[in-house]
Every structure is written in structure tokens, then in C-alpha cells.
Specification:
Two copies of one chain form a homodimer.
Chain A: H1 3-11, E1 22-24, E2 27-35, H2 36-39, H3 46-63, E3 67-77, H4 82-98, E4 102-110, E5 115-123, E6 138-142, H5 147-156, H6 160-167, H7 173-179, E7 185-188, H8 193-204, E8 207-210, H9 219-224, H10 228-237, E9 244-248, H11 253-259, E10 264-271, E11 277-279, E12 282-283
Helix pairs in contact in A: 3-4, 3-7, 5-6
């Protein structure tokens, strides 16, 4: 059973499953586990790991349009190296500072493989779900796509410093708050833009028509890619960029833009479900990285 | 570096470290990571694992005198066995039901070793800390001690069904709420009574005088122990019973007792710090299980 099959199995058991974060009693709660083998390439510093792991959970809070309240992390490693642990905590603290929330610590454990489990908590009176997109709405994405795809390549090539920089990202809490009053549906792009569109389409029972030249490809991925098509492919399918993908009525776009400094690219439109998901008129496969 | 040394190191970085749970903005947050090798003996069912892992975090919420709001868990295993996963979720759901809170799901991950990271969230207007015990206060413990010590022995002897039962416990949320308005200090007994007393003594700058015949030794540990001294030793040092250890002014004991159905044993008194920690007049070593 892969992760998606297991998640489907859980939906019957858990009312809150199926969105970026659970909502209970006005609180938004999300948890993620990351580990060395699958999530932190050789060369990832513990500072970057702390930043990225806590940031990934904060991104889920952002995807609900919530403000962030606090984050915690459990840290497990084969040995407790004091400097490594402090670096992790500093990274976790710094990403929380960036979005005006508090890192309040966690648990220590010993484990053969470096593993971290992070939880972020937020508040939202009216959280934005994945369902709710309506034909005619515009599909938007914050920031740029492909930073993590570029970082992975740069780790491989031994450019660890630049790769670590690209691996640290700003959780889109502020942009999520700006989008929240207007967005009809929202999620983060952690599994890649292509998969995000498929997940939004399934939750909202809609289609999408996207134009590829509107996809905001990060400069870093252009630098490492083998031409434009490869850059687009990496930017749209690798994922882990933790940008927000949202659907917004056309007449609300200017209000969103004036409420945030983060760039917002309009990729295309929400269509009727029978349209399916198209890019430049061709069907977009449900490809992406199934994150373990 | 062992866990305690690492925790000391973190105290400089994290204002919220050093209690059972962090408190931010009226919210109580705690996270724990547990895994096969150290926390789930052979024979532990996934149902029990889900119950126990989520219960351990709820116990930290209880130790702050908070009401529980929600719990999440990240679940990582070498393969996603659907039945095992559902059993885990059912156990997690059931322990949440027991204390009137919501299990709202989590994350799935693949990992060589079965590993779970749980987070529980609660609310407390006036959380009870480990500091605050005053000489003259009575030292109390909820329920009985030694269930987990007995379970471990029974797993070893192949009595898995009974061991699983003993491994599932009721998080003391209700008792914690009853104690909260009166307790001067509180924590849970997850590292054993002996270590809990040392931790409370350090946080509150006090001593304790305990009488061994007041320790509520669970019948299960008497059954497997080699006589009374062995039973007392196992009940006080093994830990993982997730009972509450609290200090309460003598004149508030009846109010606490009338507010909860959970048994409350008075073990002795808080003393001045130079008394140290004594059991029947003899010094109690800071022994216990340092949980990874």
C-alpha cells in the first residue's frame, strides 16, 4: 500500500483527514515526519533541516489561511551531538521568527536514522479547504516553483551552501492570510503543482485550464535544467516548494495582491469537471513525488 | 550526550523547555516520539501502540492541569499494512474518546523501524508547573504505579494479551483538572516516581519525605515481583505509568478528592530543600528510566 492508498483508507476513520491540516475548535493542527534517507540529501545542515521541517508544517497551516500560533519538533538521531541539536533548534526558531510564531521545543529520542516530526498549530475562524473552487475562478500560485528541485540537483553536484539556501523557504503564512478572505480553495504545493491541481480538482469536483508560460519557474531551476521544457517539468512535478496554490474569483485578485508583498501568478482558470486538467490544451498527468 | 544533558543544553534556547508541555497563548502543546526498539516490546499490538503513544502526549497535557483539545500522530513503518495502520488509528481514537478529545489524524511516512510521533494540544488558563511546591504541602499520586513494569515482564513471559491491557492507560486529564485549582506543582510519572520527585524538587527547590507503605503499588506488579521490596522498586523506578504526581496543600485534599473519581494517594510531605528526598527517612537515589 502506498501513502495515497493508506490515506484513503484513513478517510473512513478520520473526519478531519483529507486537507492540509485538521481543524478542531478553531484550531488548525498539522504534523509531518521527515527523515534523512528521503528528505535531507547529503550536505543538508541541521540548521536547514530544522528550518525546513518546521517550515513544512507551517506551510500546511498557511494553506488553511490560518495564522500560526506555535510549532514543536521531536528530534531523533543516533547520538546527541550538541552542536547539531542546537543548529536544528536555531533553524526551527528562525523559521518561526520569520512568520511571527513561537517554536516551543519538543522531544528528544535516539534513532538509527536522523528523523524529525514537527507539528504546527494555527488559528483560523474560517479555514480555506481544498474543496470550493468554482468554474471561472482564477488559479494562482505564490512565489516561484522549482527551488527544491534545483537544490536537490545542487546537493548532487556538491554545491551544498547554495543548495541549503534554496532548501530554506518562507512559509506562506502572510500570503495565506491575504488569500483567505477571497480564496475558494487552497492547498500547498508540497507534492508538486501537477499533483496539487489534481488534488484540488478531486476535492472541488472541477477541472483546470493552465497556461504553461504563466508558471513562475524559479531562476535556480533554469540554471540547472536542460532547457525550458526540463525546467518546466522540474518546476511543476518535483514539489516540496511549499508555495500556495489557490483559486480566487477574478474580481478579488487585486484585493489579494494589495494585501501581500508575495508575488502571485495567475496560471489559468478553474473549468467544469469534464474539462479535466489541461496545460496549453493538453491533458496534465497526475505526476509528482509521493512524499513518504 | 544523554537526553538530560541535551535537554539542559536546550533550556538556554527555549523559554518553554523544562516542563511537561509548552504553554503559549493559553495553549498547552507537547510532542513525543516513540519507536519499536525502545518503547514497544515484542507482542505490543498496533492498537495498543496507538493508544499508548497518543496517551503519553495526553498525559503531558494532563500534567499541566489542562483540558485536552486535540491529538495528532505521525505514523512511520517499513510498509503500510492496512490492518496495522487502522488498528493504530483505532487505538489513538479510543484513547482520545476516553478523555473527551479528538484524534484528528496525522502523517504517514516510511521508516525502517516502526516509529510514531504524537502531539497533544490542550487549553489551560492557569497551567500547573513543576515549580511551586511549598514545604508542608502533601505529595500525591493518582491511580497506581507499576502497571508498565508489570506489562514489560508479562511481554517477556509471552502473556501478550494481559500485557497489552496493562500497557493501555487512562490519561489523567480529568484528575489533572480536579487537581489544577489546588496543586502547587505537578508533573506526570513517565520517568518513574523517584525521578519525578527529583525533578519536582529541582524545579521547586524543595525536599520530600515519603513513606513507602503509602505508595500505591499496582496488583499486577505484585504478581510478577519477587517479594515486596522488588514490587516497590519496580513500581517507583520503572516509570511509564503516566500517573500524576502533584503537591497539594493539606487543606485542599478533600476538595480535590470530591472533584475526581480517580484514587489519590498521599505519599508524604514537601520539606525544606536541605532535607533532600527521603523514603522512610533514607535518601532516595535519582534512579529511573531515561526514556529515549
Amino acid at each position: 500500500m502506498d501513502e495515497r492508498a493508506a490515506l484513503r483508507l484513513l478517510e473512513g476513520e478520520l473526519a478531519a483527514a483529507g486537507d492540509d491540516a485538521a481543524v478542531v475548535d478553531g484550531l488548525v493542527v498539522t504534523t509531518d515526519m521527515l527523515h534523512d534517507r528521503t528528505d535531507f540529501p547529503d550536505g543538508t545542515t541541521r540548521y536547514t533541516a530544522g528550518w525546513r521541517a518546521v517550515g513544512a508544517s507551517l506551510s500546511d497551516v498557511a494553506a488553511m489561511g490560518a495564522e500560526a500560533t506555535a510549532a514543536v519538533a521531536a528530534y531523533a538521531a543516533p547520538t546527541f551531538d550538541g552542536e547539531e541539536l542546537l543548529d536544528f533548534v536555531r533553524g526551527a526558531n528562525d523559521v518561526c521568527d520569520r512568520v511571527d510564531t513561537e517554536y516551543v521545543g519538543g522531544d528528544l529520542d535516539s534513532h538509527e536514522e536522523f528523523t524529525t516530526a514537527t507539528t504546527a498549530i494555527g488559528r483560523a475562524d474560517d479555514p480555506v479547504r481544498r474543496s470550493g473552487a468554482r468554474p471561472g475562478d482564477r488559479v494562482c500560485v505564490t512565489g516561484t516553483l522549482g527551488r527544491s528541485a534545483a537544490a536537490l540537483e545542487l546537493f548532487d553536484r556538491g554545491h551544498a551552501e547554495r543548495a541549503n539556501e534554496l532548501f530554506r523557504f518562507e512559509p506562506r503564512i502572510a500570503a495565506g492570510r491575504a488569500l483567505a478572505p477571497h480564496a475558494s480553495a487552497m492547498m500547498d504545493s508540497s507534492d508538486g503543482l501537477a499533483r496539487s491541481l489534481h488534488q484540488l480538482a478531486e476535492a472541488s469536483d472541477c477541472g483546470f485550464a493552465i497556461e504553461s508560460d504563466r508558471v513562475p519557474i524559479d531562476d535556480a531551476v533554469r540554471e540547472i535544467a536542460d532547457g525550458d521544457d526540463d525546467a518546466l517539468e522540474r518546476a511543476t512535478t518535483f514539489g516540496e516548494d511549499f508555495e500556495l496554490v489557490a483559486t480566487v474569483p477574478a474580481d478579488a485578485l487585486s484585493a489579494v495582491r494589495s494585501a501581500t508583498d508575495v508575488s502571485l501568478s495567475v496560471l489559468g482558470r478553474v473549468r467544469e469537471p469534464d474539462h479535466g486538467i489541461s496545460v496549453d490544451g493538453e491533458s496534465l498527468a497526475d505526476r509528482g513525488y509521493t512524499h513518504g
